[in-house]
Amino acid sequence: MQIDETYPEPIFDVAQLASVEMYSPKVDETVWFFTELLGMTESDRVGDSVYLRAYEDWYHHSLKVTFREEPGIGRTTWRTSSPQALRRRTEALSTHGVRVQWREGDIGQGHTADFRSPSGHAHSLLWDVDYFEASDEQASRLLSRPQKRPLKGVPVRRLDHVNHLVDDVTANREFLQDTMGFRLRENIVAHGREAAAWMSVSPLVHEIANLADRTGRSAGGNGSLHHLAFWYGFPQHLLDAADIFTDYGLTIDIGPGKHGATQAQFLYVFEPGGNRIELFGDTGYLIFDPAWKPLTWTEQNMDKSLIWYGSPLAREFTIFRDPVPA
Known about the structure:
The chain is α/β, with parallel strands linked by helices and 326 residues long. 18% of the residues lie in helices and 34% in strands. It has helices at residues 27-37, 83-95, 169-180, 236-247, 302-306, 315-319, and strands spanning 14-24, 41-46, 49-53, 63-67, 72-80, 101-103, 112-116, 122-126, 158-166, 183-190, 193-200, 208-212, 224-231, 251-258, 265-270, 276-280, 295-298. The protein has a nine-stranded mixed sheet. The protein has an eight-stranded mixed sheet with strand order 2-3-4-1-5-8-7-6. A hairpin with a 2-residue loop joins strand 10 and strand 11 (193-200). The longest helix is centred in the first third of the chain and has 13 residues, at 83-95. Mean pLDDT is 91; it is low at 319-326.
């Protein structure tokens, strides 16, 4: 068999989504939501920011909640596969004309390279991280779990993915592929325009998604947040969470249901600060094929890509509106 020397060499320099910074005008209420209802643990507080992690997140934090007058997305931080990989990716970014700025890093994170995507979203790359150290009371007897399962709320297990609203899906998707090695897993192309792209650097079906922002708010490099997702691994937890959210007066955006794209069992809720949070009931599906061909949904079957089963989408969801409806 002849070897195809033209096949593009995959890049494995970016290993995983490490943390996401989320803005909230109601930090205390937002932290209450994540700790009391989703069972996350507060790792630290510094200035206007609170650092949180789920019980199967291995690092110091996976979520940083920072005060701002409006809800939205701050910095999306990725961990590389090695110190050498960090150098290679920053050099690749510079080669592509992207400005990279180095800093000492956040709490629990080491030397960090900051840059922006074409949509204006703030991204970071790093290698050094502080690992969570459980107290004797917190330590799990299960060696593959860094902390006991919390006894409050319906506790999420780990950070899963982030969904950015962008003005140009194709430009941002190509940027992530060319500079950071993301693989396109699924996308939506409607009326000749790419409307959504799900990408990953691991067997997960996605660690990041880009959705076309039809409100115009992302024009000119003002990228914003559609949602931030946390993983349960058990679909039945979505029903428990929906019951709790309803009882505590939170706005459920949509679900529980199942997406066609990614096969995710989902529940979307607005946390008190106004950000949309997705609870991911299961893994969806995993991709091990190194020659995976992206799956494309079109206007003919787009409705099933968004809702495989469950309640129909609200208009605000399909418009990709950011804040909680009044």
